[in-house]
Amino acid sequence: MSLHETFTEDLLEEAAIEILGELGYEYRLRPDIAHDGEAPERNDYKEVILEYRVREALFRINKDIPREALEDAFRQVITFSNPSLVENNRYFHRLLTEGIEVSFKEKDLIRTKRAFLIDFKNKDKNHFLVVNQLTIQGIENRRPDLILFINGLPLVVVELKSASDENVGIESAYNQIQTYKKDIEGLFNYNALCILSDGINAKTGTFSSNLEWYMNWRSEDGVNIAPLTMPQYETLFKGMLAKERILDIISNSTFPPLNGA
C-alpha cells in the first residue's frame, strides 16, 4: 500500500497543524474557543473574528492612540456596508495594510492618526493561531478544515482532501471554498488567502480566483527550489506561512486582485 493510499484527510490535517506549530503558531481546539466552550473566544457561531484578540492587538500596537478612538477603529473592522463580497474584502484589506483612520481630541486639537491591526515590521509582536474544523453559522453551518488567525483575524482558509480517495482532489477542495463563500460569506470579508491540498498537490490563491489562477509554492526558504521528493503541502506551508513571509505577502499584495486572479 502506497503513502497516497493511506494519507487520509485527517492525517493531512494533523501534518499541517504540526508544521504550523513548528512555525510558531498556537493551536486551539474548536470546542474550547466556542461561545459555550471551556475557554470561549467567540460570542456565537456566527462570529468569524476572535474579538478579544483583535481588540488586544489594537490596544497593544497603537499605544499612542486613545482607547475611545481604538474602539472606533474596531467598529470599522466589523462594519461592512457593501453588498459585494469582493468590495467588502477590498475595504478590509485597505484597513489592514494602510491602517484605520481615527480622530481624537488632544490638547484642544483634533488629531487624525491611523491605527494598525498587525505590526508588519515585527512579526513577534503578532499572535498566530490555527484552529481546525471551526463551526461557522451562516446560510448553512460549515467547518473549514483549517483557519489561520493573525491577531484574531481569519486571514487564511485551508481546505484539504484525501490523497487516498481518487474521486477527490484539488478541484474538490476548490469547490468546497466556493460553497463556503456562498454559505458563510462573512468569513471571506477578512480573507487574504486560500490554500488547497490533496496531500499530493498544493496550491494557493485568493477567494475570488478561478482555479487556474491558483499557484504552487516552489521554495521553502525563498531561494532554493524544493526537491520533487518533498510533498507540495510541506513546501507551501513551510515556505509561505512562515510568520515573516506571510506578513510580507499580505502587506504587499492586492486582495482581491483587480484582474480576478
UniProtKB/TrEMBL annotation:
One of its GO terms (molecular function) is type I site-specific deoxyribonuclease activity. Signal peptide: none annotated. Residues 7-210 form the Restriction endonuclease type I HsdR N-terminal domain. CDD domains: HsdR_N. This is type I site-specific deoxyribonuclease. It catalyses: Endonucleolytic cleavage of DNA to give random double-stranded fragments with terminal 5'-phosphates, ATP is simultaneously hydrolyzed. Transmembrane segments: none annotated. Belongs to the HsdR family. Its EC number is 3.1.21.3. InterPro entries: Restrct_endonuc_type1_HsdR_N, Type-I_R_enzyme_R_subunit.
